[in-house]
Amino acid sequence: MMLQDGSTQLLCLTASSGVPLFTRGASKQLPFSVIGSLNGVHMFGGGQRVLLSSCETERGGKVVWRVFQDSVMLIAVNGGHQAGGGGGSSKEEELHLRRLLENVWNCMVLVLGQDELASARNVERLKRDLRSCFGLIDQLLEERQEGIMGNLTHCADCLLPPNPAALQEAVEGFTQAADSEFGCLMVHGRIAAATEKWWRLAPQEVVLLSALMRSLSASGSSSCDYPVFLPQGSPTVAHRLLRFQLLPGADVCVLCGPTPSLRRAESGLVGRFWSPMVETLRGCLAVGERCLPGSVSLRPDVLALLLINRETRRSVSCVRSSTHPQPSDPALPSKTRCWELLKLFYIFSTTRYFSQEETLCVSPEEKPQRGNTEDFALGFSHQPLQCYLVGEECKCFGLQTPQHQLFLLTPLSVPTFALRTVATQTLSAITGNTGF
Amino acid sequence: MASRNGTETAVRRGQTEKGDNSDSDSTSSSYSSSDYSDDLEPEWLDDIQKNGELFYLELSEGEEEAALAQATANQGVSTNHVRFSEKEAEIITEQNKKQRCGSRTKGEPTLKRLARILRRKRRPSQRRGGGKDGGKDSSSLSSPPASILKNQAGQRQGVMVQQQQLKEVCVYLNPKRLGGSSTPLSDRGGLLEALLGVVHRPGWSRGQGDPAAGRREERLTVHGLVPNSPAIKCGQILIGDVLVAVDDVDVTSENIERVLSCIPGPTQVRLTLETVGPVEGVSGGDSPSIHRLKASPPVSQLVRLLWGEDTAELQMSIGHIPHIVMYLSLKLDSASPQEEQEILYQYPVSEASGQLKGVRGIFLTLCDMLENVTGGRIISSSLLLGKHLVHVGYWKESNNLLVIGLPAERVPLLYLQTVVGGVVRTLKVMYGSLDSAFCKADHAPRLDHFFCLFFQQLIQPSRLTDSSSAPPPDISGTLFLDGLPAVRWLTLPPEIKMEVDTVLSDFESSDFGEMSEDFFGLRRLYVTLGSCLFYKSYLIANHLPKEDLLDVCLYCQHYCLLPLASDQRVGQLVIWREVFPQHRAQQRGHSGSSAPGYSQPHGRHFLLIVGLRHFMQCVLLEAGGCASPALGSPGPDCVYVDQVKATLLQLEVLEAGIEERLNAPPAPCLSCADWFLPAATARDRLDSLASSSPVLSKLAGAVKGSSAGSRGRSLFGEKARRSSPQRSLSDSGSEGQADGGSGSGSSMAPGLSPHSTPDSARKLGGRRDSLGSGGSDGSGGSGGLFKIPRMKHPNPFYLGTLKKILTERETEEMYNTMKLTSGAENTLFHYVMMETVQGIFIAPTHREVAQLSGSIHPQLIRNFHHCCLSIRAAFQQSLPPRGRRGADRSQSSRGLGPVKEHGVLFQCKPENWTDQRKPAPTMTYWVIGRMLLEPVPQEFYVCFHDSVAEVPVEMAFRLSFGLAL
């Protein structure tokens, strides 16, 4: 057994020659013979017109293959869980790994551009260049920041500020002044406000840019100028991403062309547009991880929730920190565990019952590759609307309306028959209050 | 017949012989040894294979008639039933000419003998698959058959715009009907007109007549058709056609009456007609222009497949769908390299499977490598072949690897492991281990047959059932129900159940005649370990331990014996083979550890299945142990077979009672989904509106409901029930049921009252309990209440308790049925309830489901089953892996963790909603699964309309648990 419990290793090779480009994740790298065989079986199958897409082992171990643009082969290997628990969760693991591969590829395009990856004339140079992606890739692999669901849902994580109108106005003014149409304000790594054009970017790009912003702001610099390719919008022409830190935890960014220079924007524009907004921003930061303004009152029996707007591809999620744990309650799952359960339940429901419509923004050439995970949901003759699970740690409820998907966790003490009302109330409380 | 496979072959014979034998069976229920004279030996004796195995299946007379009638109902579809069955009869005759044919035919009436001769003449051409090369033995009656040759000769000569074509038409004739009719046969038309309905007027057809034929042997041109006759009903015989042959016997005006008079009884005959039709793109003169319509054989494909017929054709029809089974060796033997030596077994050989075979290197490599990388054996992989997604399941045993590839649209990945596990277990039951199954060369044909059945059932189940009557099979339903480690159970009225059990026990005690050891002073041959009894695919009695029952049932499922007994009347079914019951083998593996001083006897086990009409009894016998050890490969012993037959005949008295039970209204009464859908009533419309925007509509009621929840718990039940105005209607319905249950239970028939009172108490207890512990998660408190009644039955394997409780359930259900008539609303659509300890499950019977026919309801049931696949897969997570593979069980907090209950809400709309102004009405319903590990593992799946209030749902769960324990 070469992989640790539950750890994931990512392998990247050139698709044509099988030269390893990099491996990330897992403390111990897999031996080269294994990497070679994993790549070899896929290549051999390709020669026989059989496309190997995934593999599953006992206790949830999983291997997923995917070739991008006929040039780069990405393989994700998950070690499974020695502790047991059956193989049931591997179905969930698969979607997770598939999303990971897509995100990693998009991230490579974002940093290096599609041309360099697709042509790959000089393998050694490519290897060197790819190092600049590692930070971002590691972030995707390790999921350092709790509560970021976008990598999985491909819906941008949002934070609903108390007074959105003022922030929206400031973002739009600032973006316009910077000769751009794409601008965005991020608070706690989530989008608090963005221009209309920003939302028109492909959802995956929005998610990826958010991830990039998070990793840039984690570096601690007050501003930076970073060239990015947009995997869907402009995979071959780079844009500039200008980022400015307004307050610790609050960043603003614009996507722009050659002008303005970082210095001019920083000195001339940031102060002009954002110094009047400092108090508003502080109010925004105070929302914190709850992501919802104080005006939204959640029922006390909601442990965690994830709300997705299916039309705008945005999501809000939060986990209640147990403020005053009652002794009567049997141990509620920890916060970290809640996030994990929320993710697992999202995958569980979407792979089996609810549709994932992000396939809309997939280029036609890649569709067959993505379609190769069999869609269990297609087997239903009637449409699933809601589902719930009663486990040992908590109860989960999911519902889907034409506009929203809501997933929430409640303590076991909530009666099962009340789950539905809890969910509908929560949904209307949020949508009614914020117009999300 | 070259493809007929080695052992698992089955043969039927003509009706006449069968009739004789069943007579003798019924009169002498048990032969004494002196009875074994040649003429009384059982008909299956000749089918016993060299290794002692037997698979003998014969349909009953009634079934054949039904099949024939059905064939005529499907008008004009050419069938080859008669030929087929006669062929079989011939084969038998050939094999046993000396024993049988000579003596038997003597007593037959001349007509029958004539018919027999007719049949025999037909055989050779049939064996060549309809090739008409005239290779027949000379005989008085047979002139050269209606052949293509004749026609081709014509083609070569003539430059014809129109072409003579031969067509074959099958009609069902019943000479017995003639007896009643008053028309004298000596009328001008004779039998041709009276029986067949073809009007032929001699002398009319001068112009068309074959010049070579003389006046006396005039060709039979159809000049008219008699209304309502078989000829006109079939719709294929046209005026102007020429009748050339009847069942391949050439006919003219000279011999037609004689030929027709040879038809002994109701049967299907094949007419060959020469017709004039336009040339259909036939350019070459030598392509035979015979029109053969696609046959839909009246004997279902399943039976033919079981007989070992037709496998090639069926397999061809799914050749384009990639599927494969391979048994690969992981050992390299470089000393004697042969081509493809690592493939120990492979099936089928087709283009698509060839592609999968080509990449076997992938399977071998992955199997070997991934175990090292992830620390667990490989279970499955997914491959994309062109457009087909294929899931491949693996099973590694010692140094060999079983690989099964199945198309994803048939078997979802979620359920692949269950399917593979089922195959492996079945093979182990049949052969002991995978190695012994696959590594013996002479097993290959039998395995081919095995896997042909396996793939046919999964990939094109519709071909196996009778296409006309049965609804399109529900692949998810088959997967789900077959995948359950349980057998479908039918609850019976107590007095019938008791009789059945008594009869079975009598049989099992082996205290009869020469089976008792005193009789000859010898050790008995076999010990009866137990038996189980099926009626029309329902298990009605079981005296086998659960694991043995599952083993037996897996075998029956695999060979489709259960649907066979329910759809078709089995004339006689005798199966005998050595089996290797799995848990006995495992116990032997580590014997002595569990109970010192006792170890499982090292005996050999044999499975005897005997079916008569709708009954089927499976008996597990042990040789060795306290019976005499078995040597070699013994065949079935007549004494045992006859004893089972006698038992079944004895049970036949009860058939009426069982049928009555089957015909009874659905026991927990069911509703049809379609009743809820049409927006005819205001209530429904309201409902559908409400469900279409769940966000807003349910709020009002919800607020109140939840506020009640926070108040005092003792009052909660009342509050919740009264509070929600929206639900009041349906609420009151279900409430009335529950209240009525406790109230009027004692006013029922006096005999029932002892049952009903504890029931009602339990109900109340259940409700209170469920509220106290806050809904479905409560497990602590609920156990206590249910433990008390169970203490009385300490042995869960004792089926007597099951019986008793099922009767309780029965009375309860009777009571429910009465409720329905009083007009309360019932929202239950479907349910499946599995009792893991006894290995049985209960679901509405096929007939109950059929009664609820509607357009939406079958869809709903399909959906229900599909959803159950997912629910059960979620449950499987929380269970420890079934003993076999790496059974380290420790509670992990990874994944979603164990799941107790899982529900999905569905919305359905009527199809083809054309009304533009109004939105289509919708109906929402829940599919909920609930698993209980404590006190005994149970799984429960229900489907009901959304309008039911949730508290009664909880009660429904608890009720059923209380009842079925």
Topology:
The complex is a heterodimer of chains A (436) and B (965).
Chain A: E1 8-14, E2 20-24, H1 32-47, E3 50-57, E4 62-68, E5 72-78, H2 90-112, H3 114-119, H4 123-130, H5 134-142, H6 150-153, E6 156-157, H7 164-177, E7 182-187, E8 190-194, H8 196-200, H9 203-218, E9 223-230, E10 234-247, E11 250-256, H10 262-274, H11 278-287, E12 304-309, E13 314-319, H12 335-352, H13 367-370, E14 383-391, E15 395-400, E16 404-410, H14 419-434
Helix pairs in contact in A: 2-5, 2-12, 7-10
Chain B: H1 15-27, E1 54-59, H2 61-73, H3 81-95, H4 97-106, H5 110-127, H6 148-157, E2 162-173, H7 176-180, H8 190-196, E3 198-199, E4 220-221, E5 224-225, H9 230-234, E6 242-246, E7 249-250, H10 256-261, E8 267-278, H11 301-306, H12 311-317, E9 324-329, E10 343-347, H13 351-358, H14 360-374, E11 378-385, E12 388-397, E13 400-407, H15 413-431, H16 434-438, H17 444-459, H18 461-464, H19 475-483, E14 487-488, H20 494-508, H21 517-520, E15 527-535, E16 538-542, H22 546-558, H23 561-567, E17 570-579, H24 582-589, E18 604-613, E19 615-623, H25 638-651, H26 655-663, H27 673-676, H28 682-692, H29 694-697, H30 699-710, H31 713-723, H32 728-744, H33 753-772, H34 780-790, H35 799-821, E20 828-835, E21 840-842, H36 846-851, H37 856-878, E22 899-908, E23 923-932, E24 938-945, H38 950-964
Parallel strand pairs in B: 14-21
Antiparallel strand pairs in B: 1-17, 2-8, 3-5, 4-6, 6-7, 6-8, 9-10, 9-13, 11-12, 12-13, 15-16, 15-19, 17-18, 18-19, 20-21, 20-24, 22-23, 23-24
Helix pairs in contact in B: 3-4, 3-5, 15-22, 19-37, 20-25, 30-31, 31-33, 32-33, 33-34, 33-38
